[in-house]
Amino acid sequence: MKLLNKVAFVTGAGQGMGRAIVRRFAEYGALVVAADINLEAAQQTIEGLGENALALACNVADGASVAQAMAAVEARFGRLDILINNAGVGSVDAFVDTPDENWQRVIGVNLTGTFLCSREAVRLMQKGEIKGAVINISSTAALTGEGPSHYCAAKAGVMGLTRSMARELAASGIRVNTIVPGPTNTPMMAGIPEDWMQSMLKAIPLGRMGETDEIARVAAFLAGDDAGFITGQNLAVNGGMAFI
Fold first, then answer.
1. 20 to 30 A from 75, CA-CA: which of 6, 9, 200, 221?
2. Which one of 151, 184, 209, 242 is the catalytic residue?
3. pTM, two decimal places
4. CA distances from residue 217 to 18, 109, 131, 223, 240 in whole angstroms, order as listed
């Protein structure tokens, strides 16, 4: 119960890593908020978790939607201790053929969404004088460049945002770190072309994709007191595919 009574807000919680993180945090005693643009999926994530869980509809790329979700958290729990910026989207586009709308959507969810959620969460943490933790989810694609340009750019931006936030927010006792997964067994990964998938798997020294709960366990570590002196770091969880 190492996260006992900590309030944790998880974006993209309707499936994949987000769902695994919500359930792992609940197992460790946290009060969990599952936020997703698909409310029904978020509600499925918290099934069986009782009064210690809340599902919210939230479009992370929309500042008003994010502010509304954070207000709901404050109304329900009165505080916020942990934010997990997990929501993400991708699109298989060749660089020269990338439509403006695809670029804007991928950057909007992956990078702008991380900024918007972090800004509102930090405001709430500072209001309650909470020495909280923000955990951003990037990608090995930010290191290797393997992937669509908008996705690589957004995930690299997340890593830079983490470093800036960590420096500025340390005075408030708020820690900010990034998890950098490699290929992980999620619904998003299922949409990648098979030849691309096999190429990535060959590049992983441990010889397999990651599992969502492996990411969730690392998130729980970074959110807890055992990581109390860790901030501004990018922690690769990718089977050795790339080093930071």
1. 221
2. 151
3. 0.94
4. 12, 24, 21, 10, 18
